[in-house]
Amino acid sequence: YNVVVLIIIIIITLFLYPAPSPRRDSGRLTWGLQFSKNSTRSYFLGRSYFKGNRVSMCFSLRTADLSSVRLHSSSDLESTRVPLVNGSASSWLSLLLQAALGAGFSDKTPAHTVTMACISSNQAMTTGVGLIASGQMDVVVAGGVELMSDVPIRHSRKMRKMMLGLPRAKSIGQRLSLLSRIRPDFFTPELPAVAEFSTSETMGHSADRLAAAFAISRTEQDQYAFRSHSLAKKAQDEGLLTDLIPFKVPGRDTVVKDNGVRPSSVEQMGKLKAAFVKPYGTVTAANSSFLTDGASAVLLMSEEKALAMGYKPKAYLRDFVYVSQDPKDQLLLGPTYATPKVLERAGLTMADIDVFEFHEAFAGQILANMKAMDSDWFAQNYMGRKSKVGAPPLEKFNTWGGSLSLGHPFGATGCRLVMTTAHRLKKEGGQFGLVAACAAGGQGHAMLVELYPQ
Question: Residue 19: is its pLDDT beyond 80?
Answer without folding.
Answer: no
